[in-house]
Design goal:
The chain has 164 residues and is mainly alpha-helical. The protein has one domain. The chain has 8 helices and 4 strands; from the N terminus they run αβααβαββαααα. The strands form 2 sheets. It has a two-stranded antiparallel ribbon. Strands 3-4 form a two-stranded antiparallel ribbon. Strand 3 and strand 4 form a beta hairpin. The longest helix is centred in the last third of the chain and has 17 residues. It is globular.
């Protein structure tokens, strides 16, 4: 029993981790969520965003291209919680489920859905607030891999145990 995170919240987060274990390529703590309906368009979209000076968006699209998740979407733990727990419904295009997060405050909605405090959400959803050993461990792993996901799992277990 944790005095920092409720059992109900622990079960919900573990459900998200279980889903990600099956498809770790969907997981990237650097982005709330980014999606593309057609992978063939990625090089064009990246070039267009660079040309317009939207370097952050270009980085997101490159991450999506590199991870190549089967659903066409990458997202952080908060975004994945919204998807896995049914808050977000996908649109289907070219036989791929694509999620759009444009109208949501992803961390706030995920915190509500999980039933965790704002403080716990900050400590869980923002790697900058993670203890140093987890921040560095995450940086050493490649996003979209089981190793990357395992760091996030260990970080959550630490939060449950210590509140930090």
């Amino acid at each position: 029993m944790s005095k920092f995170v409720s059992q109900k919240a622990i079960k919900k987060v573990n459900k998200v981790f279980l889903a990600l274990t099956k498809q770790p390529k969907k997981f990237n703590m650097s982005y709330w969520a980014t999606a593309v309906k057609d992978y063939k368009l990625l090089p064009i979209l990246i070039r267009e965003n660079v040309a317009r000076g939207y370097f952050g968006k270009a980085r997101e699209l490159k991450a999506l291209k590199n991870q190549a998740p089967p659903c066409g979407t990458i997202a952080c733990l908060a975004g994945q919680a919204l998807i896995t727990l049914g808050k977000m419904q996908p649109t289907v295009d070219n036989d791929k489920a694509v999620y759009s997060f444009n109208h949501l405050s992803v961390p706030e909605e995920a915190a509500k859905l999980l039933g965790i405090s704002e403080d716990a959400a900050d400590k869980l959803f923002f790697p900058d607030y993670w203890p140093r050993k987890f921040r560095y461990a995450l940086k050493k792993q490649k996003a979209g891999t089981k190793g990357y996901l395992n760091v996030a799992k260990r970080r959550f277990a630490h939060l449950v145990k210590t509140g930090q």
